[in-house]
C-alpha cells in the first residue's frame, strides 16, 4: 500500500524565516527515515533536516533560497507502509562531508628547456568549461607553463586575458612560491559563518584580557577522590559552577550590550556557552541554568551536548541564550590564550592546561596544580578594576571549592 | 645508412606539414612516402580529387536547372577522359607544389615503405636502406575498411579510391554506407548519370550530425536517387555475369537486387599495425590506432604520431594541426593540441557542416542550451542562387549565452562553418555573432540570423519567442 504523506518543517527553534541552502533530494528519490532532506542555515549554524519516515519523494515544495518556518510543507513522500526495504535499496544518502573543490589550482613554472631536449614537463592544456581563454592565450599559457585553471579572468564573463596571465605569473614569481604546489579549498560552512561573527566581535569590541593562575590542589584532590568512586568530573564543571557563583556577585559580566551600545541587558538566569571544537569548526552549545544543576548533572549534560555538537546534530535553540562563555583548551595544551568575546555577551573565560608549579607557601616551594585562566571583557562595559576583581574572586572560589556551597 | 634528426613517415597533409614545420624550426628532416606522389590520401585519392569531381557534378547539375533561370543548355555530353584529366591536373599541381616546397626547405624526400626495426631506426621495405633518426613522427594515415564478405576481387565492387578513378559510369550503382564519403561519391555518379541507391545501417545518413541538419540533404537524395534505405544491412554480395547481386535485410529494402557497380564506403581503418611499430616499442591498439598524449607523443619518448592513425575524427585539418604540435614539441616548443572544436564537412549537394557540440550531444550531456534555427528559405541570397532548402542552427549555453555548437546544411556550408569554429575558440556569445554586421546579401548572414533567432532579435522572420 502506498500512501502520500506530507513532510513539514519540524520545530527548529523560534525562527520564522530560515534560509534553505541545500535541497538534498529530488522528485523520484527514495529516502530512508532520518536521511537528510534539506539543509537550513540560521545566523548561528547550519542544520540538516531529516526525513521523519521512509518513502519516495513525489513532490518537492521548496527550493534553494526559500525561507521556511515551522509547519511549512517541504515535500510529499509516497510511503510504503509495510515494505520499507525497497526504499532502503534505492536511497541515496547524502553525505555530510566538507566539500573540497576539484578545481585545485596547481602551478608549475618550469625552467627554460634546453633547445635540443624535448620538454618533459606537464603543459597546460584545454580550458574546462568553467572559464574561457582564446587560442592565443592558451598558447601563451603553455609557453609560460601556467595552468589556466587557477587564474581569475578579468575579461567579460571571467575570460582570461593576456594581462591576467602575466600578472598571475608575476605574482607567482614575486611571492617566491614558483615551484611550490598550493591547494585551494573552501572554508567549511561553519567556519565561514563563525568567521564573519568573530571578525565582527574582534573589531567592534575593545577587548581587555586579564590573566591569572589558580591553585586547584583542593579541587584536584576532590576529583581524585570521586574518581576512585568511579565518578568522573572534569575541572570544567567546577569552573562552570565557580563562574556562576562569581557572576551572581558581578551581574555586569552576565549581560549583553544592546544594539545601540547604550544599554546593558542584565540576565537574571545563568546560562553558560561552552565552546566545542568539532572537525567542521567551532560551535558553542549553551548549558542552561548552571546554578541549579549539580556537578554530576553538568558533567553528563556537557558530555552529551559536546558529543552531539561533534556529530553536527545541535538544534539552533541549543546554541542561543548564553550570558557568558567559557572556552577550554586545557585538554590540548598551552599556557595562556586570549579568547574573543562572543558578542553581544561582554565577557569570556579562557582555560588553559593545568601545570604542576613550585609555589611558595611561606617556608618552602611546594608542587602545586595551577590552572591558567584568561578573562577577556568588553572595556566599554567593564572597568579594569572590576575585571581584576572578578578574576580574583573566581580564583578564590576555585581554590577553595567549599565556597561553591555558599 | 641515412642519418636524420627528424623522420616523418607518410606525406599526407599531416606528414608534410610536420616535416615542413620541423624543417622551418631548424631540424634536419627526412620524409618517407610509399607512393610516388606526395600528399597522401587527401591529395591523391581523397579530399582533392573528390572535390574536383564534385565541382564537375555541380556544373552539370547547375546546367540542368538553368532553364529555371531562363537559360537552357542542351543535355551535357560527358567526356570522361576530360573529367579525369581535369581532376588529375589539379592533383598534380598540388602534389607538385608540395614537392617543390619540400625541396625549398631541404627536406630529404625518400620514396619507399618504411618499417621500424628499433626505436631509432626505420628500414625501407625491399631494400637494405636503414634510416636512423633522433625523433620520428608517424603519420601513416588510414585505409579503406574492407570487409572480407564483400568480393573486392571483382572490379565492379569499388572502394572510394577505385570510384575516384572513374573508369566508367555504371547505369545502376549501389553505395553501401550513408556517411560522408558514400554520399559525396553518390553525388558525383548521380550527376554523371548513374542511378543511385544508398544503403545505410543506421537510422540516418551522416549519423554523427544532427538529424535536422542532415534532413535537407536526405530529402534531396530521396528525391533524386532511386532509393535510400535506412536501417538496412547488406547481408551478402555475389558476382554475377550481369552484375553484383546484393542481398538486403531491412524493412524498406527488397530482399535482393542486382547492380552494375557497388561502392563500399563503410569507414576507414588506421594503418598503425602496418609499420612494425612493436619493434620500436610503440603501442598500437587492436583497431590499429596509436595512442598519444596531447603533445602527440606516443608511449616511446622520441616517437610521435599524428593524423588518422591517432584517432577519430579522421580529417586532414585535424592532422595538420596535430602535425604542427608534434614538430614544435620536438623542436622544444611548449606546444599542445588543445583545440575546442574540429569541424566536420560533407561536400555533398547541399553541403552539410557542423562544429562544436551537436544538439544530440548536448541533450545527452544534459546541458541547458538555447537553439536558434534559421531556414534558408528566408535568405535572399540563397533564393537568388536558386536554392531554398538550407538551414543554419546555432546552439548556445542558456545561462551564459556562449556558443556551444553550430550545424549548417546548404550551399557552401563547409566554408560558412569556419565562422562558428572561430566563435567557439574565441568563446563568443550569441550576441557577439548577432551584433557583428554580416554583409548582405550573403549566405554567411544565415549564421547571424541563427543567432538572432536564438536571441529573439530577428526581423527577417517572425522571432520564435518574445523579443527581449
Q: Determine the strand fraction of chain B and express it as a percent band.
A: 15-25%
Count every helix of chain B, treating DSSP H or I runs of 4 or more residues as helices.
13
* β-strand number of chain A: 19
State the share of residues found in helices of chain A, binned by percent: 25-40%
Q: What's the N-to-C terminus distance of chain B?
A: 72 Å
CATH class of the largest domain in chain A: Alpha Beta
Return residue spans of chain B where pLDDT drops below 50 for at least 5 consecutive residues: none
The biggest beta sheet of chain A is recorded as: 7 strands, mixed
Quaternary state reads heterodimer
CATH architecture grouping of the largest domain in chain A: 2-Layer Sandwich
Mean pLDDT of chain A: 81
Content-based structural category of chain B: alpha/beta
Span from first to last CA of chain A? Answer: 64 Å
Give a written overview of the molecule:
- The complex is a heterodimer of chains A (about 400) and B (about 475).
- Chain A is an alpha+beta fold.
- Chain A has three domains: about 1-100, Beta Barrel (OB fold (Dihydrolipoamide Acetyltransferase, E2P)), CATH 2.40.50.100; about 105-180, E3-binding domain (Dihydrolipoamide Transferase, Irregular), CATH 4.10.320; about 190-405, Chloramphenicol acetyltransferase-like domain (Chloramphenicol Acetyltransferase, 2-Layer Sandwich).
- In chain A, about 25% of the residues lie in helices and about 25% in strands.
- In chain A, strands 9, 12, 15, 16, 17, 18 and 19 form a seven-stranded mixed β-sheet that branches. A four-stranded antiparallel β-sheet of chain A has the order 1-8-6-3. In chain A, strands 5-4-2-7 form a four-stranded antiparallel β-sheet, with no helix packed on it.
- In chain A, α6 (about 235-250) packs across α8.
- The model of chain A is unreliable at about 80-120 (pLDDT under 50).
- In chain B, a hairpin with a 2-residue loop joins β4 (about 115-120) and β5 (about 120-125).
- Chain B is built from 13 helices and 22 strands.
- Chain B is an alpha/beta fold.
- In chain B, strands 1, 2, 3, 4, 5, 6 and 17 form a seven-stranded mixed β-sheet that branches. In chain B, strands 8-15-9-10-11 form a five-stranded parallel β-sheet.
- Chain B has helices at about 15-25, 40-45, 45-65, 80-105, 160-165, 180-190, 210-225, 315-330, 360-365, 380-385, 415-425, 430-435, 445-455, and strands spanning about 1-10, 30-35, 110, 115-120, 120-125, 130-140, 140-145, 155-160, 170-175, 195-200, 225-230, 235-240, 245-250, 255-260, 260-265, 270, 305, 345, 350-355, 370-375, 390-395, 405-410.
- The interface of A and B includes residues 114, 115, 118, 139 and 159 of A.
Amino acid at each position: 500500500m502506498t500512501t502520500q504523506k506530507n513532510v513539514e518543517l519540524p520545530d527548529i527553534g523560534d525562527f520564522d524565516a530560515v534560509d534553505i541552502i541545500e535541497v538534498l533530494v529530488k522528485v523520484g528519490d527514495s529516502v530512508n527515515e532520518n536521511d537528510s532532506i534539506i539543509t537550513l542555515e540560521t545566523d548561528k549554524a547550519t542544520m540538516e533536516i531529516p526525513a521523519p519516515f521512509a518513502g519516495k519523494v513525489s513532490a518537492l515544495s521548496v527550493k534553494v533560497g526559500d525561507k521556511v518556518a515551522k509547519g511549512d510543507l517541504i515535500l510529499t513522500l509516497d510511503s510504503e507502509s509495510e515494505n520499507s526495504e525497497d526504499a532502503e535499496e534505492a536511497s541515496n544518502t547524502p553525505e555530510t562531508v566538507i566539500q573540497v573543490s576539484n578545481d585545485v589550482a596547481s602551478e608549475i613554472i618550469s625552467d627554460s628547456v634546453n633547445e635540443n631536449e624535448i620538454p618533459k614537463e606537464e603543459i597546460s592544456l584545454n580550458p574546462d568549461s568553467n572559464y574561457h581563454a582564446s587560442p592565443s592565450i592558451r598558447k601563451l599559457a603553455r609557453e609560460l607553463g601556467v595552468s589556466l585553471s587557477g587564474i581569475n579572468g578579468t575579461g567579460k564573463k571571467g575570460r582570461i586575458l593576456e594581462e591576467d596571465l602575466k600578472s598571475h605569473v608575476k605574482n607567482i614569481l614575486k611571492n617566491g612560491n614558483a615551484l611550490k604546489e598550493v591547494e585551494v579549498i573552501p572554508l567549511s560552512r561553519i567556519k565561514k559563518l563563525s568567521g564573519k561573527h568573530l571578525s565582527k566581535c574582534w573589531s567592534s569590541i575593545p577587548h581587555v584580557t586579564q590573566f591569572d593562575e589558580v591553585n586547584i590542589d583542593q579541587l584536584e584532590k576532590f576529583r581524585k577522590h570521586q574518581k576512585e568512586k568511579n565518578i568522573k568530573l572534569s575541572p570544567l564543571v567546577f569552573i562552570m559552577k565557580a563562574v556562576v557563583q562569581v557572576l551572581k556577585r558581578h551581574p555586569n559580566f552576565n549581560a549583553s550590550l544592546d544594539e545601540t551600545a547604550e544599554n546593558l541587558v542584565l540576565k537574571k538566569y545563568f546560562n553558560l556557552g561552552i565552546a566545542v571544537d568539532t572537525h567542521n569548526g567551532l560551535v558553542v552549545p549553551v548549558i542552561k541554568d548552571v546554578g541549579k544543576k549539580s556537578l554530576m548533572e553538568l558533567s553528563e549534560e556537557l558530555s552529551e551536548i559536546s558529543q552531539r555538537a561533534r556529530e553536527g546534530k545541535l538544534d539552533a535553540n541549543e546554541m542561543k541564550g548564553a550570558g557568558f562563555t567559557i572556552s577550554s583548551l586545557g585538554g590540548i595544551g598551552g599556557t595562556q590564550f586570549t579568547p574573543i568575546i562572543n558578542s553581544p555577551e561582554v565577557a569570556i573565560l579562557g582555560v588553559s592546561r593545568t601545570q604542576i608549579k613550585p609555589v611558595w607557601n611561606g617556608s618552602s616551594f611546594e608542587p602545586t596544580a595551577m590552572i591558567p585562566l584568561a578573562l577577556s571583557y568588553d572595556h566599554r562595559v567593564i572597568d579594569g578594576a572590576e575585571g581584576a576583581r572578578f578574576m580574583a574572586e573566581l580564583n578564590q572560589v576555585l581554590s577553595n571549592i567549599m565556597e561553591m556551597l555558599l | 645508412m641515412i642519418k636524420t634528426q627528424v623522420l616523418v613517415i607518410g606525406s599526407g597533409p599531416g606528414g608534410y606539414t610536420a616535416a615542413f614545420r620541423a624543417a622551418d624550426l631548424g631540424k634536419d628532416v627526412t620524409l618517407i612516402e610509399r607512393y610516388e606522389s606526395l600528399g597522401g590520401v587527401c591529395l591523391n585519392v581523397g579530399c582533392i580529387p573528390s572535390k574536383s569531381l564534385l565541382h564537375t557534378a555541380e556544373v552539370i547539375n547547375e546546367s540542368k536547372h538553368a532553364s529555371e533561370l531562363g537559360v537552357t543548355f542542351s543535355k551535357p555530353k560527358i567526356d570522361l577522359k576530360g573529367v579525369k584529366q581535369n581532376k588529375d591536373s589539379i592533383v598534380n599541381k598540388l602534389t607538385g607544389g608540395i614537392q617543390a616546397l619540400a625541396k625549398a626547405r631541404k627536406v630529404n624526400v625518400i620514396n619507399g615503405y618504411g618499417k621500424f626495426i628499433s626505436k631509432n631506426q626505420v628500414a625501407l621495405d625491399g631494400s637494405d636502406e636503414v634510416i636512423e633518426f633522433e625523433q620520428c613522427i608517424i603519420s601513416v594515415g588510414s585505409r579503406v575498411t574492407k570487409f572480407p564478405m564483400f568480393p573486392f576481387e571483382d572490379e565492379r565492387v569499388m572502394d572510394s579510391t577505385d570510384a575516384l578513378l572513374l573508369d566508367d559510369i555504371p547505369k545502376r550503382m549501389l553505395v553501401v554506407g550513408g556517411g560522408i564519403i558514400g554520399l559525396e561519391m553518390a553525388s558525383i555518379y548521380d550527376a554523371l548519370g548513374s542511378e543511385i541507391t544508398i544503403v545505410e545501417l543506421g537510422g540516418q545518413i551522416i549519423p554523427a550530425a544532427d538529424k535536422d541538419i542532415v534532413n535537407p540533404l536526405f530529402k534531396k537524395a530521396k528525391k533524386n536517387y532511386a532509393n535510400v534505405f535506412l536501417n538496412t544491412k547488406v547481408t551478402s554480395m555475389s558476382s554475377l555475369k550481369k552484375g553484383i547481386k546484393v542481398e538486403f535485410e531491412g524493412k524498406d529494402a527488397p530482399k535482393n537486387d542486382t547492380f552494375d557497380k557497388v561502392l563500399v564506403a563503410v569507414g576507414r581503418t588506421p594503418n598503425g599495425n602496418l609499420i612494425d611499430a612493436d619493434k620500436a616499442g610503440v603501442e598500437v591498439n587492436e583497431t590499429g590506432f596509436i595512442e598519444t598524449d596531447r603533445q602527440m607523443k606516443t608511449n616511446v619518448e622520441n616517437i610521435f604520431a599524428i593524423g588518422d592513425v591517432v584517432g577519430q575524427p579522421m580529417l586532414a585539418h585535424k592532422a595538420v594541426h596535430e602535425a604542427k604540435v608534434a614538430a614544435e614539441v620536438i623542436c622544444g616548443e611548449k606546444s599542445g593540441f588543445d583545440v575546442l572544436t574540429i569541424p566536420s564537412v560533407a561536400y555533398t549537394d547541399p553541403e552539410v557542416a557542423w562544429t562544436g557540440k551537436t544538439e544530440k550531444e548536448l541533450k545527452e550531456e544534459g546541458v541547458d542550451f538555447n537553439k536558434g534555427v534559421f531556414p534558408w528559405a528566408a535568405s535572399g541570397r540563397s533564393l537568388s542562387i536558386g536554392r531554398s532548402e538550407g538551414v543554419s542552427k546555432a546552439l548556445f549555453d542558456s545561462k551564459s549565452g556562449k556558443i556551444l555548437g553550430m550545424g549548417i546544411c546548404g550551399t557552401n556550408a563547409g566554408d560558412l562553418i569556419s565562422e562558428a569554429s572561430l566563435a567557439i575558440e574565441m568563446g563568443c556569445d550569441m550576441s557577439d555573432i548577432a551584433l557583428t554586421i554580416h554583409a548582405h546579401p550573403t549566405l554567411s548572414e544565415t549564421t547571424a540570423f541563427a543567432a538572432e533567432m536564438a536571441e529573439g532579435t530577428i526581423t527577417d522572420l517572425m522571432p520564435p519567442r518574445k523579443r527581449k
